[in-house]
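Contributing new records

If you add data, match the layout below exactly. Sequence lines come first and carry their own label; structure lines follow with theirs. Keep one chain per record. Anything else will be rejected by the validation script.
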Amino acid sequence: MMVSVIIFMIIVAPIWLVLHYRSKKQVSQGLSQEEYIQLSELSEVADTMADRIQTLEAILDAETPNWRTKL
């Protein structure tokens, strides 16, 4: 039992700590340029989809006024 604890403390714990603090550093840095561009593109797509949904709902409201209650 003691041998496994020693091996853990010598090999696994330092690697674990290095990876943990490396990921913390990446999170605190914020978005990279590529991630920011991708987020902007996704935001534009979401805005376009929201406009399309509003248009479709307006068409359905005009053609079938009670379509929302049928769902």
